[in-house]
């Protein structure tokens, strides 16, 4: 596949999409966008249009925890009890969670048995009914603890949990002594990597001269102006462009984020719990046309992939949750078409 063929594939979807393909094996990135970022304003989509990337943020948070680990500041296999804010320990203990047995690694790979507070119907009902409600970390952890007892014993089964990543965000702040946003920006080297259209909502100012955010939809709901605090504390929080997201994924796998290649190997290591084959430490693992790939998706319609076999990073955005499947199909078709013939 080449850039022209990718552009034709994107056009065939007949929806707003932006796709950016990069990697050290390419002479220059492939830049493709179609449709409108904001139809009412007449603004076209581009690979530099920023969007809320929701759970794509988890890869950045996990990589930040691993940076702290490689510097000896956190034990991945140590319990979270002494690391999280005491109030969170109290809330979780009251719900039957054993924070003396749940480890940092369990939070990273979603095997801690923690419920996902976003599964509570009360959460999205409140988001829709009160879109400008300001959510706190404490409120979301309390909602999760109230919603369900532990789903499994720690380290036994994969169960995706935004609440677990809120706890990781809390741990990062307590170890670093500064905000999660500032720590991720520093440890992930945003400035050195040239991520000029990336910022953490509320915690950081919007960069100067960046394009306006694209409008993002969930069914008939325009979710663009929903208060960012609904998904801010580690499970989500970042706003960025497709260019920046793909650039980061390439840097992560090409050795420009961690000090040691052993740290990336740790991030990609597979646990022994049920479901460990599909999700590692802040990043998913899957098979595309017979070749292993690593990826993460974001709720509103974002996706980022890296193929070690082809040496290509791809990130893309759709403007609606319902279009994410088409975006993933475009990305995986592109990856399959760029694999070496012998792969």
From TrEMBL:
One of its GO terms (molecular function) is serine-type D-Ala-D-Ala carboxypeptidase activity. It comes from the Bacteria. Residues 7-322 form the Beta-lactamase-related domain. The keyword Hydrolase applies. Keywords: Carboxypeptidase, Hydrolase, Protease. Pfam families: Beta-lactamase. InterPro entries: Beta-lactam-related, Beta-lactam/transpept-like, Diverse_Enzym_Activities. PANTHER family: BETA-LACTAMASE-RELATED. This is D-alanyl-D-alanine carboxypeptidase. It comes from Aminobacter carboxidus.
